[in-house]
Write a structure and sequence with these properties.
Layout (H helix, E strand, L loop, with lengths): L1 H31 L1 H4 L3 H22 L11 H47 L1 H41 L4 H8 L1 H8 L17 H36 L3 H6 L7 H24 L4 H4 L3 H12 L1 H11 L2 H8 L5 H4 L4 H7 L5
Helix pairs in contact: 1-3, 1-12, 1-13, 3-4, 3-13, 4-5, 4-8, 4-16, 6-7, 8-10, 10-12, 10-13
């Protein structure tokens, strides 16, 4: 058991390092080249920041598994784990919500800016859009953080009520291998009712529902928005304005699908793991390979988002490298419009 926990922890640390590197690179260049990135800096910076915080908190929590009982007391590691894992899921939830806002903002700009540009002026329309979505960005950060605070407070109350003070210490001395499993801080490891004295069934069930709901919501919302946007694109692509402005024969879906595939790749193993948590204990004991796959996929979200939303976008690279003027100055096309319109990797 201890060898498996160490192997899982190693997978997490290795893959999370890539996510930290990718997210940090987007954050740095978005700040340093913000005058060239213009309107795209805000959504990309926030998405990269959410992914960076999620990866950093999860890595800091996973490191606990490498520490011995002499280095870190049991009660301290238990507290850090109970605070750290839900906090990482909170930042992943914020990342999901930002992805949804990105999809809706893309649809809003792609469909609306042409129709109102002549009568209102592009700058006025862009200013009103920024004000509208600013409230969404504030809500996206505040609501999950408030939910995390409520979750942590209720976990503390439940543990103080249900867990005798000396139960865990006796458990460690009498069954070291089982205690090692109970002390291990691995995402989704204790999502079922097991024999560990530190597991709160109510909060474990909440993590299950929260994970399923969050992932399915972002998948459904993004798929519906981009699919409707693709349908709208097909209906109006024959107009003169579209013939002059659209140069991507594959349409919107050919670019948007990569954004959806990242979510599926990163969280499908986790969803399967949560679903199988309702199975019998015999089945759950044979899920180590799935835990490894899930550790790799979830840990790579920040890295893959940095590629799909930033580095593989031609307009992002050109703005960062200074090969073009600021995006809103050299073209009448909105950033989200161009992001969906430029083929990936060009």
């Amino acid at each position: 058991m201890e060898l498996r926990i160490s192997a899982l922890s190693g997978v997490y640390v290795s893959c999370l390092s890539l996510s930290l590197l990718g997210s940090c690179s987007v954050i740095v260049v978005s700040i340093l080249r913000r005058s060239h990135l213009s309107v795209q800096a805000k959504p990309l910076l926030q998405l990269a920041l959410a992914d960076f915080l999620a990866s950093a908190v999860l890595m800091g929590t996973i490191v606990i598994n490498f520490l011995s009982y002499d280095t870190l007391p049991v009660k301290t590691s238990e507290k850090l784990c109970n605070y750290g894992l839900p906090l990482s899921l909170t930042f992943y939830c914020i990342s999901f919500l930002l992805v949804i806002i990105y999809a809706f903002e893309s649809a809003y700009v792609f469909q609306g800016w042409r129709e109102r540009a002549e009568t209102e002026g592009f700058e006025n329309q862009s200013l009103r859009r920024r004000r509208m979505f600013c409230l969404f960005y504030i809500t996206v950060w505040l609501v999950p953080i408030i939910g995390y605070i409520v979750y942590v407070k209720t976990v503390t109350v439940m543990q103080a009520t249900l867990t005798p003070p000396n139960k865990l210490i006796t458990y460690v001395s009498s069954a070291p291998d089982t205690a090692r499993f109970c002390d291990s801080c691995i995402l989704f490891l204790h999502i079922t009712n097991d024999t560990c004295p530190t597991v709160d069934p109510g909060h474990a069930e909440f993590i299950q529902v929260f994970t399923l709901t969050s992932v399915m919501t972002v998948l459904v919302c993004c798929t519906v928005v981009y699919w409707k946007l693709q349908s709208w694109y097909r209906n109006y692509k024959s107009t003169t304005m579209f013939r002059l402005s659209q140069n991507h024969p594959g349409g919107i879906w050919s670019s948007a699908r990569y954004m959806i595939l990242v979510i599926i790749f990163c969280w499908a193993p986790g969803l399967l793991l949560v679903s199988l948590s309702f199975a019998s204990s015999t089945i759950r004991q044979n899920l180590f390979p799935l835990y490894v796959i899930q550790a790799m996929s979830v840990s790579l979200q920040g890295f893959l988002n940095s590629i799909v939303y930033a580095w593989r976008r031609r307009n992002f690279r050109d703005a960062v490298l200074g090969e073009r003027m600021p995006l809103m100055a050299y073209s009448q096309k909105a950033f989200f419009d161009q992001s969906l319109n430029d083929p990936l990797g060009h």
